[in-house]
Design goal:
Strand content: 15-25%
Number of strands: 16
Radius of gyration: 36 Å
Oligomer: single chain
Distance between the termini: 114 Å
Structural class: alpha+beta
Shape: elongated
Strand order of the largest sheet: 12-11-10-5-14-3-16
Largest sheet: 7 strands, antiparallel
Helix content: 25-40%
């Protein structure tokens, strides 16, 4: 036995599974020479009790360890399965209809910030533009305080200037950190959240200051500024529109958003969210949608300068014309012919409606400044549009909607300030 290779034979008889045949469970351990038939081998009648006890204790400890490991693995699998289910539910594509021009709503859940998926460079660019917008508004406040000798306005202006200086330092610090190291996505998200929170607070403070000067300016000489792509900044026209068989809509716009300015306005009616929409999306030209039918417009307006734009349309043959800065830039026909613009809808500025009065998507939001939006229920002549674009004394206001603070409800921190387009272009 000492020179032969021995094999260890473990016989397990479990009481629950085999109790009817064998009675109480018994464990036997012995060794036999390598060449001996295991089935024919005679087992000794006596086994060392100490050996049995030691072996049983080792096996029991091993079983308990394996059981604990299995339970831990089971908990881990359950947790991972739960996380996977949550991820799958959040990544389910939203229902959305494609436009006739090939535009389709992007899959994914609603996004309150339109630039969440952008890279660090795009984020910093957007913040830079926002800072520039805030600085301009502070210059307006400074000009007002100089002309009115307002001690309170000067104090608030200085406070806001200090906040902007702090914000610029944060952005500069972010640039330096990006140059040194890419960092993790979590750290970038946290830092960006802090900067956006500061921006929101700053916007609210400036808006409060601007509201304090509301009584000192005419109701129609104001502009609306949409500094960020969000789904909560917008203005809504208070009155409903009548049924129209023709229209002209004109407005002043200024934007340097890239690649597109978003949605300056959208008009939705029950059963049709795209009754009348002006939208720029992606790298495509701006579009006018009527009853969800589309025509591309030859506007180039995202250069950071003020531009006056007009679109005219008649239901007969669906003829349309597009004007920029007083000159016709394009025309066409067969745009929703013989379909009147329906009444009793909701006209929203700065957002594209997917449902009546809501369903906003931050990626389609307008970024920039707008003013003097007017709407007529007829087609204006080229001369009338030129008078509007050149701020002529003969310029008319819209008979369906005219630009006035009294006609608008403003939401989400959209700012208002005095604006006279003639001073901008002369």
């Amino acid at each position: 036995m000492s020179s032969a290779l021995k094999l260890l034979i473990l016989h397990f008889f479990f009481m629950e599974g085999l109790s009817q045949d064998f009675g109480q469970t018994q464990f036997i351990c012995t060794s036999v020479p390598k060449d001996v038939d295991l089935c024919a081998a005679n087992l000794p009648n006596t086994v060392s009790a100490e050996d049995l006890k030691s072996t049983v204790m080792q096996l029991r400890e091993t079983v308990l360890q394996q059981k604990e490991t299995i339970m831990n693995h089971k908990e881990t699998i359950t947790e991972l399965t739960s996380k996977l289910n949550r991820c799958e539910s959040q990544s389910m594509p939203e229902a959305g209809s494609a436009r006739d021009g090939g535009r389709k709503k992007e899959p994914g859940s609603k996004n309150t910030m339109g630039d969440v998926s952008r890279g660090p460079t795009d984020t910093l660019t957007q913040m830079g533009r926002t800072l520039q917008s805030l600085k301009q508004r502070l210059e307006n406040l400074e000009q007002y305080s100089r002309s009115n000798n307002s001690t309170q306005a000067n104090t608030l202006k200085q406070l806001l200037q200090n906040k902007i200086d702090d914000l610029e330092r944060q952005v500069l610090s972010r640039v330096n950190s990006l140059e040194e190291s890419k960092g993790t996505l979590r750290n970038e998200t946290e830092q960006r959240g802090k900067v956006e929170s500061t921006l929101t607070s700053l916007h609210q403070r400036i808006t409060e200051l601007e509201k304090g000067q509301k009584e000192n300016r005419p109701l129609d000489k104001f502009q609306l500024t949409f500094p960020l792509r969000t789904n909560y900044m917008y203005a809504k026209v208070k009155k409903s529109l009548p049924e129209m068989y023709a229209f002209t809509i004109c407005m002043w716009l200024r934007s340097n958003a890239s690649p597109s300015v978003g949605t300056p306005f959208s008009y939705a009616v029950p059963g049709q969210a795209n009754e009348l929409v002006l939208i720029g999306w992606g790298n495509n030209p701006m579009e006018i949608l009527i009853n969800d039918k589309m025509a591309k417009l030859p506007f180039i307006i995202n250069d950071g300068k003020w531009h006056h734009i007009c679109v005219t349309w008649t239901t007969r043959d669906g003829v349309w014309e597009a004007f920029q800065d007083g000159a016709m830039r394009g025309s066409g026909e067969n745009l929703a012919p013989y379909h009147p613009i329906k009444a009793n809808g909701v006209l929203v500025l700065g957002q594209e409606q997917d449902t009546l009065g809501g369903g906003f998507d931050a990626t389609q939001a307008f970024v920039g400044t707008m003013a003097y939006l007017n709407l007529w229920d007829r087609k204006l002549s080229s001369a009338e549009i030129y008078n509007l674009a050149t701020c002529s004394s003969k310029a008319q206001v819209g008979n369906v909607f005219s630009w006035s603070e009294a006609n608008l409800d403003i939401y989400g921190g959209v700012s208002k300030w005095t604006f006279e387009p003639c001073r901008q272009i002369n």
